[in-house]
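Hi support team,

I submitted a single chain yesterday and got back a structure, but I'm not sure I'm reading the token output correctly. Could someone confirm the output below corresponds to the sequence I sent? I've pasted both exactly as they appear in my results page.

Thanks,
R.
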Amino acid sequence: MKADRTWNFTLILCVLMTFACTFVQAQGNVPPSKQGLADMLLEYVHIRYPGTDLSRDVIYVSAQRQRLFHLRGGHVVGDYPISTSAAGLGSEWDSFRTPQGLHYVREKIGEGCRPWSILRWRTVTSEVADSSGNAGDDVITSRILRLAGMEGGVNAGGEVDSFERSIYIHGTADERSLGRPGSHGCVRMRNRDVIELFSQVPVGSLVVILDN
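Hi R., thanks for writing in. Yes, this is the structure output for that exact sequence:
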């Protein structure tokens, strides 16, 4: 039964990809690769998670592309390089992997602090990192969007709970690591990018993390 469901979703995605590519070729004002991706993602979420409110801001984290896309009103309004876990995708406690599936922004931390400020245990410190990347491995800087999972047994509850695992979208002191997997489970961003995203998305915004 599980294999049948997986096959059905794969077939649906193939059909949606064909539709999206055909549709966006007619749109002269938006790069096809981005808008086609947005269209396909929203159709996927609509089918995979029936009843999900897609009218709010949606953040799409693509582990394969190592990119984060910010969608609003069905359109891509932001596109940023990121770094997901060096250990790959997964939800288990102490796995140091980036969880997949549907999440939402439950907390926003660091509003108003200066760029490159170091946060420890979700508290802004007086320390400021520099761009050399020598502040230490996986130092959290500038802003935090703390995520909570919405799928029981996948990223919510028990040993797979993303909120309890402290999964964030956050700034990094090692911006050179972006564009390839390198984090300890969170989603790293450039400091100026995470500050921009933080200012635009409210608490409650949807976050979808997928391999492809």
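A quick pointer for reading it: Helices lie at 2-24, 32-48, 191-200. Let us know if anything else looks off.

Best,
Support desk
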